[in-house]
Amino acid sequence: MDLTEVIDAYLVESEEFLRDMEAILLRTEVSTPSDDDLNAIFRAVHTIKGTAGMFGFDSTVKFTHVVENLLDGLRSHEIPFAEGLTEILLNAKDHLSYLVLEETKGKIPESKVVHGNSILDQMKPYLKNDTSEKTNTDPLLAVPLENKPTLQTSGFGIPAYLISFRPNRNVFSQGLDPISFIGYLKKIGTIHALKTISEIAANLENIDPEFCYLGFEIHFVSDSDLETVRKVFNFIENDSFLHILPPGAGIQDLCDLSGQLPEEEILLGNLWKEIGILTDASLIQYLETLKTLKTGIETNTNQLSNSFNSVEPVKETVTQNPASQTNKDTNKSSTIKVDSKRIDNLINRVGELVVSCANMNQLIGNMEDSNLQESSILAMRLLNEVREISLKLRMVPIGDSFQKYTRIVRDLGKELGKDIKLSTEGNETELDRNIVEKLSDPLTHLVRNACDHGLETPEEREKKGKPRQGTIKLNAFHEAGSVVIEITDDGNGIQKEKVWQKGLDKGLVSGSMPESEDEIYKLLFHPGLSTASQITNVSGRGVGLDVVLQNIESLRGNITVKSTPSQGSRFILRLPLTLAIIDGFLVEVGKNQFIIPMDMIFECLHFTDENKADANQFFALRGSLIPYLRLKDYYPSESTGDSVRENIVIVRNGEKKAGIVVERLLGEYQTVIKPMGSVFRHVKGVSGSSILGDGNVALIIDIPSLFERTITLENEKLYK
Amino acid sequence: MEPVQTLQTTNSGFEIKWQGYLTVPFVKEWKNLADVWTNEKGKVIHLDLNGIQRIDSAGIQFLIYLKELSQTNHYSIHLKNHSLAVLKVLDLLGLVSFFGDRVKVKKEHSNEVEFRYGTRKTN
């Protein structure tokens, strides 16, 4: 495994822990934390410390060590949970978030260390006997802090590095020789003992001499830090199993490791004894711990306290109740962490499969073989299910992302002297993880804007007869194949006149204010336009909404704004569910084919002269006028030479409808979206391309962007 | 370097002298040869490794394969006249006792190998 992947996993895991920690701490402002809450926070900090220790991230380890002491006191009720602790722990969480992220990139600057120390100082009055100074007995701390291996004076700690290395099977074909990496270890230390494990006996009949069947357990003595040792295997880590336990790691660590290795745990115990990692006594200890873990019956809790993994190492969680342990194990195995690249890869492959099966289906449809057609339909149905399932692998509920805004709103409220409540709805709404990640910045900006510009101070609100506490609401829901996210505030609303005036001042618009609100609000997304009367730390520098729009558009989404004076504003973000595969509708103009996302299609009609209400732009549909455009006007195409009867595809985007005139309707088509190359990224109206089963390329029409163009061409008031 | 092997029949079986590289590019071919030698049961095979100039993980794995195969095919295999290249790898990987053959180290090579572990003595 590549080191970057391991660090990425550490970052993701830490982020999750810290997010949970923050959510719990925010709850403690309303009610006293429960024992479960305190245990959860402790576990979060403890786990981060342990993993940071493995990588030698000293600053993180030192900081978390003191925080952990405080949390330990809290959960054992030796320290009462005082009111001021929430603030201190929230600050500690923030600093920890910073440390976790920045220390993976390099050394933490002195100013930040000072900042961390000031947070730790605030904890001191709560810490009995100032445990920050007490001798560190955590074996994991011994490595990074001392930066050299140390033997444990009490309890069992492995005497030096234990390197478990199983090269991947294809290592020879990659031109790599595991022996040379092991040989290199000698340059930074001494191989005290090494045991070669071979899987040859098990594969004797079918051995392929070009595959690697070897594995190594190495007792390695070195003054080098963990990072240096790990670097020895940098080039070969990919896809190989490499686990390095630092000197001082405990029995629990060996048990965890044995669970990950292919060999039997007892065999491994003997092997580690053979290479001098375990003694006779510690081998027994190891076997007992294994037994405890398997049966859930604890024999000696103290021996288990050296865990650095997320398995809670302390007495509370290694319970005497086998049922609860079993339950925990069940929960553990119910989810697995998978590299998102693998999922992307799977989705891409499924996408290709969808395309080729769609083509095959088309060909079979032309044949007069009912059995074949029936089988093909069944295969397509199954494939659709596989597609749905694989797409869901990348779906995450938006609620996790919403959670962080509680903190932002809380802190901003304090900073701005406003009383603000955040309410969320639709937390369970699922969205592609890639989109959720990219949504973070725009949403933060919109929430901050709502706090700063949107909401009034409690006094102002009181004068207006509103409750002193302002509300910001985040809401997410699915609508017509898209996800809609709304950010609503019950504040002042946007002053249209002021916005228009700013637009005039900047020379962005001219003339009198139009009736269309959308046209006015669109000005808000121009770079450099801010209506804030004063610049604050929070917002008002005129930088932001333009970037928000760019971010949303890059996700093939759009933003609309609604506002009522004195009642509040609503920013509505409309985004596609996923960026990978869509159900499309294939249409043809001349010799070119296009795909319109199925979710957006309302109906298809024959386009005749009678229903053209306007010579150019409008179409009469059951008493209402709908603007339309001809696709061939935007994407000129070579004519097929046949005289064609035109059709109009009525599409909808949110509340609006429009028509797209095409020549031929070719029917439903599942397709994989291939992103446009950077050269074509500026092209409006196209969100990607797709390779059809027959090898032709079809452009995927970006309806919101086409709407944009239609609106620009015509006066928007006729939409109403 | 292209490997060369010479085969001599002895009273109890064969003696094979290997020369050149025992590395990934060649082990596949050598395995085919080895499968032929080891087909007859009850034979004793001596591998003279004096001419091995380079050996890598694939090569050492191949030797382990021959040894493992000898258990199921009922022949015995002995490594002799280990070259320095072979000795260094056996030393590094602690495999001396696995093969269980007598190892001779030339005086001028005594600083190049340690045999600190993986010998019967330490195990």
From TrEMBL, chain A:
SMART domains: CheW, H-kinase_dim, HATPase_c, HPT. One of its GO terms (cellular component) is cytoplasm. The modification Phosphohistidine is found at residue 46. Keywords: ATP-binding, Chemotaxis, Kinase, Nucleotide-binding, Phosphoprotein, Transferase, Two-component regulatory system. One of its GO terms (molecular function) is ATP binding. Its EC number is 2.7.13.3. One of its GO terms (biological process) is chemotaxis. InterPro entries: Bact_Chemotaxis_CheA (IPR051315), CheA-like_dim (IPR004105), CheA-like_homodim_sf (IPR037006), CheW-like_dom_sf (IPR036061), CheW-lke_dom (IPR002545), HATPase_C_sf (IPR036890), HATPase_dom (IPR003594), His_kinase_dom (IPR005467). Residues 1-103 form the HPt domain. Residues 581-712 form the CheW-like domain. The keyword Kinase applies. Residues 381-579 form the Histidine kinase domain. Involved in the transmission of sensory signals from the chemoreceptors to the flagellar motors. CheA is autophosphorylated; it can transfer its phosphate group to either CheB or CheY. This is Chemotaxis protein CheA. It comes from Leptospira brenneri.
